[in-house]
Design goal:
single chain, 211 residues, alpha/beta, Rossmann fold, UDP N-Acetylglucosamine Acyltransferase, domain 1, 2 domains, 7-stranded parallel beta sheet, 6-stranded parallel beta sheet, 3 helices
């Protein structure tokens, strides 16, 4: 019998696959299954079965599963991830922090619940990261950055020191942000963009430099 606590993953797909890979290497949880749309029941992701739908989650919690994690990915504004995170909190699940053993995270970094740090990420001293964030593969976050809740920093992004990213924003694959820049809330930064000026809330920018 496993002594590891049970966890249910909420949302299938490619992002779920990477989280499962991280959890298997960490070996800290027993993954009981995935919750997803009814039409996906019975499908497997890296050997983990899609066994539940979201309307069963409260029953699972009442039955003794205390941990859950949002494994739905996001491109753009992450409203569905926010909805799932808030639903899990309302039910009463504990939502862990998941950090890949193949990342480098300074001991001074503060990271809130529900965030995943993917393989190859480097996070330097003084940085703070909010709830339910995705810090994706190969991201570099330099010193003293501030990342709000529900942010997705996509693969290969570089944030220079003292960058701020507001809640619910998406910084696209391979983007670069120079030192001291502030990106507002619910901003979408296009892939490969270079951010050299402050970006206000609710904007969509792209290009080199981004406009």
């Amino acid at each position: 019998m496993s002594l590891k606590p049970d966890i249910v993953l909420v949302g299938g797909g490619g992002h779920c696959k990477v989280v499962i890979s991280i959890l298997k290497r960490l070996d800290t949880f027993n993954i009981t299954g995935i919750s997803d749309l009814e039409e996906n029941l019975g499908e497997e992701v890296l050997g983990i079965e899609t066994r539940y739908t979201d309307d069963q989650l409260e029953e699972l919690h009442n039955g003794g599963i205390k941990y859950a994690f949002v494994t739905l990915g996001s491109v753009g504004i992450p409203d569905n991830r926010i909805r799932l995170f808030e639903m899990l909190k309302h039910i009463g699940f504990e939502i862990p922090l998941i950090i890949s053993i193949d990342s480098i995270v300074d001991e001074s970094v503060e990271i809130d619940e529900g965030t995943v740090i993917m393989p190859g990420a480097i996070i330097n001293p003084g940085t703070k990261i909010g709830k339910n964030c995705i810090i994706n593969t190969g991201v570099i976050i330099d010193h003293d950055c501030m990342i709000g809740d529900h942010v997705h920093i996509a693969p290969g992004v570089t944030l220079s020191g003292s960058v701020k990213v507001g809640a619910g924003s998406h910084v696209g694959t391979g983007a670069s942000v120079i030192h001291g820049i502030e990106i507002g809330s619910r901003v979408i930064v296009g892939a490969g963009s270079v951010i050299v000026n402050t970006i206000q809330d609710n904007k969509k920018v792209m290009g080199v430099p981004a406009k």
